[in-house]
Amino acid sequence: MQRFILLATTLFAMFAQSSLSFASGGHSGGFNSGRDANIQTRQVDQVYETGKAIFNGRAKGEPSLQYCVAVGGQKIPVQRKSLKTFKKSSFNDFAKSLYLCDQPEKPVSESLTRDSLLYVVYYLDKRHKLDLRGS
User: Fold this and answer.
1) What's the CA gap between 11 and 28, in Å, rounded?
2) What one-character-per-residue DSSP string does 50-77 give?
3) CA 75 → CA 2, 27, 125, 134, distances in Å?
4) Which domain holds residue 32?
5) What is the pLDDT of residues 111-129, one digit of tens each?
6) Does 115 map to a domain?
7) Is 134 a domain residue?
8) What is the total count of domains within the chain?
9) How many whole angstroms separate alpha carbon 5 and alpha carbon 8?
10) pLDDT tens digits for 95-113?
11) How do 74-77 and 98-100 pair as beta strands?
């Protein structure tokens, strides 16, 4: 009888410990034991974030612009649909097709520095999955 009680107590203790380890995220040894070692930090793409800030008009020292793209002789506001025609085109061709919506005859390259324009094109390329090629 004592063996049965000892065996039942041992099995109960093992079951309780394993269910606690599931409750704590699968780690045995308590809550949060070793969890910090397994956390991966997210790498931030600074070029993407800079281009996003410039495009949205939140970058310090950069003008707030409304971007349009030249498609079939028309200037259309930049949206996912209007950018479909530029998938797998060249980086430079896409950059040359960006215009200001307020002044459709004025390309964006006249309002932004070369570096700022490259940041914006990089952002749009990654954001809308255009898969632009170099030059």
Assistant:
1) 17
2) HHHHHHTT-STTS----EEEEETTEEEE
3) 87, 57, 19, 24
4) 2-38
5) 999 999 999 999 999 999 9
6) yes
7) no
8) 2
9) 5
10) 999 999 999 999 999 999 9
11) unpaired
- Same domain? 34 vs 51: no
Whole-model pTM: value is 0.69
- Asked if residue 109 and residue 66 are part of one domain, the reply reads yes
CB of 76 closer than 8 Å to CB of 112: no
Are 34 and 54 in a shared domain?
no
Indicate left, alpha or beta for 88 from its phi (over 0: left) and psi (-120 to 50: alpha).
left
d(CA 18, CA 26): 9
Q: Which two tokens stand for residue 27?
A: 């780690």
| Spatial distance between the Cα atoms of 48 and 126, rounded to a whole number of angstroms | 8
* 78 within domain boundaries: yes
Residue 3, amino acid? R
